[in-house]
Design brief:
Layout lengths: L4 H20 L4 H10 L4 H25 L8 H21 L5 H18 L1 H4 L14 H16 L4 H12 L4 H25 L5 H24 L2 H21 L2
Helix pairs in contact: 1-2, 1-10, 2-3, 3-9, 3-10, 4-7, 4-9, 5-11, 7-8, 7-9, 8-9
C-alpha cells in the first residue's frame, strides 16, 4: 500500500508513545491500532500489522532491562511456557473470530485493572523487598499467565495489565522487575502470534516497520525512566494508563 508523509509521521509518533506506554505499563496499542485503521487497514489487518512494532519494541526494552540487571531469569522457563501456549491459542482465535469481540474484551480489561489499582494497589504494586513467589509454588500463576497469553495473542492492547496482574499480583515481583518480565513474555507470545498472522497473510510490512521504528525509540527511553523513577510514580502512571485505555475503548467505533 502507498504510505503518505502524514501517515508515516502518524505511525512514528504513535509508535514512539506506544513504546513508552507499553514498556512502563500497557495499553500502547490503543494508540497504534487506531493509527493503522485511520490509514484504511481493516481491523484484522491492523491487529496483525501492529505486532511488528510490538516485537521490535519488546526486543529493545528487554535488552535495556537486561543491561541494567532488572530481568529476573530464574523463573523465565515456567513463566514463558504458559504465555507462549496462550499466545498461539489467542492468535488462532483472532484470525477467525469476529473483530467485534475486541472492544468489549479491551474495555473489560481496562476497567478491571483500574478498579484493582484503585481499591487494592498492593496487589499490582507490591513493596520493594516483598518475597517473590516462584511459579512452581504458585499454581494460580499458570492460570493468569495462560490467560494473559490468550488475551495478548487475540487483541494485544492492554495485555501488559494482565501480565502485571500475574507477575506482580500472583508472583509478587516489584513493578520494575515485573515490567521486565512482562516485556520478556510479550516478546515471545507476540512472536508466536506473528507466525500465525504471517501464515494467514494478514501483515502489511511497510507500515508495520515504520511503526516499529517509533516503538523502538520509545522503548529505549522508557527503560531508562523505569530504572530511575520511584515505584509510587510507576504505580500512578499505570493507573493513569488504565483510565486512558478505558476511555479509548469506550470511544472507539
Amino acid at each position: 500500500m502507498e504510505i503518505t508523509l502524514t501517515h508515516g509521521l502518524l505511525l512514528v509518533v504513535t509508535g514512539f508513545l506506544a513504546g513508552i506506554i507499553n514498556t512502563l505499563a500497557g495499553g500502547g496499542s490503543n494508540l497504534t491500532l487506531p493509527a493503522l485503521m485511520v490509514m484504511g487497514l481493516p481491523a484484522e489487518v491492523a491487529n496483525a500489522t501492529n505486532r511488528v512494532g510490538v516485537t521490535v519494541q519488546s526486543i529493545t526494552a528487554l535488552l535495556g532491562f537486561h543491561k541494567h540487571g532488572k530481568l529476573d531469569t530464574q523463573d523465565k522457563g515456567p513463566i514463558l511456557l504458559p504465555t507462549i501456549l496462550g499466545g498461539f491459542i489467542g492468535a488462532g482465535l483472532a484470525a477467525y473470530a469476529p473483530s467485534t469481540l475486541i472492544k468489549p474484551l479491551l474495555l473489560g480489561t481496562m476497567l478491571l485493572m483500574a478498579l484493582i489499582i484503585l481499591v487494592r494497589p498492593a496487589i499490582i504494586a507490591p513493596e520493594l523487598g516483598t518475597p517473590v513467589n516462584r511459579v512452581k509454588n504458585t499454581p494460580s500463576s499458570w492460570f493468569w499467565l495462560t490467560l494473559a497469553g490468550i488475551y495478548g495473542g487475540f487483541v494485544q492492547a492492554g495485555v501488559g495489565f494482565v501480565l502485571l496482574a500475574a507477575l506482580a499480583g500472583s508472583l509478587r515481583y516489584d513493578l520494575v522487575r515485573a515490567n521486565a518480565l512482562k516485556v520478556f513474555c510479550t516478546l515471545f507470545f507476540t512472536l508466536a502470534s506473528l507466525l500465525v498472522f504471517i501464515k494467514e497473510d494478514l501483515i502489511l510490512w511497510l507500515p508495520g516497520l515504520i511503526l516499529a521504528a517509533g516503538t523502538m525509540v520509545g522503548a529505549h527511553l522508557a527503560v531508562k525512566l523505569a530504572i530511575k523513577v520511584s515505584p509510587k510514580v510507576l504505580k500512578w502512571f499505570l493507573f493513569l494508563m488504565t483510565l486512558c485505555g478505558s476511555v479509548a475503548a469506550m470511544l472507539s467505533d
